[in-house]
Amino acid sequence: MNGRPVAVVTGGSRGIGRGIVLSLAGAGYDVVVNYASNADAAREVGKEVEARGGRAHLVRADVSQRTDRRELIDQTVATFGRLDLLVSNAGVAPTVRADLLEAEEESFDRLIEINLKGPYFLVQLAARTMIEQQAAGIVSNPKIVIVSSISAYTASVNRGDYCVSKAGLAMTAQLYATRLAEHGINVYEIRPGIIETDMTGGVKDRYDDLIFNQGLTPIRRWGQPEDVGRAVVAVATDLLPFSTGQIIDVDGGFHLRTL
Ligand code: NAP
């Protein structure tokens, strides 16, 4: 097997996805940077990949759309000829946080489509490609990373739709880890805690108070996209070869119970 490995990172243009893309470029990967609408941000990330010696290919694709998912994988194979790593990271928060007793079905449907159904079927497509390429000797032990959230197990009654979508994503990782082990494909779930991105920009003051004054996380700082990027690189560079379905908490210790 020759050449640089290739990763697809959904939502790679901003926030956590951008941190993952740059970490992977630094680790020797060429990267397909997926985005939904903000082409300028994706172009900037592409330049940063090239500055790190990697190649970047930008693909606009809405992960909730079947034809876009197909296009994303097809363009990856057409451009680079191989797929070593899928990082399913793209996701959205509800446009309006609404109490469980008031929340609308439209928001629920939107979050399930983008955060759960899209990744579920994108992983399926990527896995089929990886199985074929592994049999053909094009890649060796490709991997899949699913970015979920502490919301997979933390009840926030003002965004139940988001929590349900992330809980479903956690099971998605378990399912594919079980199914794909026989094909030599390990699957990991990365659970970020509170990470400083556009998504959390609107609640910054509240989280500042929780982290710095109330000790919500034992490690008293905001998580950075690079924290997640480094966890992805650990997986991508085969540091966890006998682990699959593993949940990797990148949350400053948020998940710890204390008394
Ligand atoms: P962000 O800053 O809002 O960035 C979201 C990224 O996803 C952007 O690149 C965006 O593309 C892309 N995207 C949005 N909808 C998409 C779609 N339908 N198809 C393809 N790409 C799409 O969000 P983030 O904070 O980095 O979050 C990334 C992931 O981590 C999400 O799954 C989120 O749920 C999860 N997470 C975040 C936190 C946190 O504290 N920030 C904590 C736990 C989990 P455009 O630029 O084109 O819009």
Describe what you observe in this structure.
- The chain is an alpha/beta fold.
- The chain has one domain (6-250): Rossmann fold (3-Layer(aba) Sandwich), CATH 3.40.50.720.
- 46% of the residues lie in helices and 14% in strands.
- It has helices at 15-26, 39-51, 66-80, 105-135, 160-180, 198-201, 204-213, 225-236, and strands spanning 6-9, 30-35, 56-60, 85-88, 143-147, 186-192, 246-250.
- It has a 7-stranded parallel sheet, sandwiched between helices.
- It starts with 5 loop residues before the first strand and ends in a 9-residue tail after the last strand.
- The mean pLDDT is 97.
- Residues 10-11, 13-17, 34-38, 41, 62-64, 89-92, 114, 147, 149, 192, 194-195, 197-200 line the site of NADP nicotinamide-adenine-dinucleotide phosphate.
- InterPro entries: NAD(P)-bd_dom_sf, SDR_fam.
- Keywords: Oxidoreductase.
- Pfam families: adh_short_C2 (PF13561).
- GO terms for molecular function: oxidoreductase activity, acting on the CH-OH group of donors, NAD or NADP as acceptor; quinone binding.
Quick description:
The protein is of the alpha/beta class and 259 residues long. The chain is 46% helix and 14% strand.
Order of helices and strands: EHEHEHEHEHEHHHE
Q: Over all CA atoms, what is the radius of gyration? A: 18 Å
- Per DSSP, the total helix count is 8
Summing up helix and strand content along with how strands pair, one would put the structural category as: alpha/beta
- Approximate shape: globular
- Please, what is the average pLDDT? 97
Please tell me the CATH architecture by its name: 3-Layer(aba) Sandwich
How many strand elements? 7
Protein name: NAD(P)-dependent dehydrogenase (Short-subunit alcohol dehydrogenase family)
Keywords: Oxidoreductase
GO molecular function, one term: quinone binding
Family: Belongs to the short-chain dehydrogenases/reductases (SDR) family.
